[in-house]
Amino acid sequence: RQFIVISFFDEEYPEKLRQIYRPPLILFAQGNLSLLKKDIVTIVGSRYPTHYSRDVINRLVPNLLDQNKVIASGLARGVDALAHEATLKNNGRTVAVVGNGLNHSYPQENYSLQEQIKNNGLIISEYLPDTPPRPYRFPERNRILAGLSESIIVTEAKEKSGSLITASLGLQENRDIYAVPGPITSKLSAGPNQLIEAGATPIVDFKFKNEKI
Which of 125, 149, 173, 186 has the fewest C-beta atoms lying within 10 Å of its C-beta? Predict the structure, then answer.
């Protein structure tokens, strides 16, 4: 399948992304470009979540979809994959922002998920199609995830994690930050609990409230 190339100056380029610090000049895409014009909620979290994240995501996503939200994530293993899968399972639309070129599938275990998103959602990358995945590309990718969205939800994440990079980038760009609170004995709840302490909105039920208090 061919790639769609969008430049910063094209009408298809998402307005929210134009406003961020260092917006990508070019995006490569596969799938349904119209999703970039919708209200996007990004869900991020640990690559090694517990069942808690799965339960929360499976109950939260249908309510987000009822509000006509598009769910975005980074197609990594763990919370990202759970968010994409829950959206597809509920016939929703999902956007994956990847840290490699679109000719690569990373991690390999998400290959069929990537194919599903291509056909039922949208995959975007700022990298040339043959660019391999590298660790430093993932934080770069996170600024796009934050930039595209109106709200960012963090489920489980350790104290120093990529998800918190996404959240802090979102804060800089004045996005709404939500976090799923967890037990203070759990390392994976350290990140979200810290965000809540710093002013993020805690998610205390599954009815996503999109207005600031």
Answer: 186
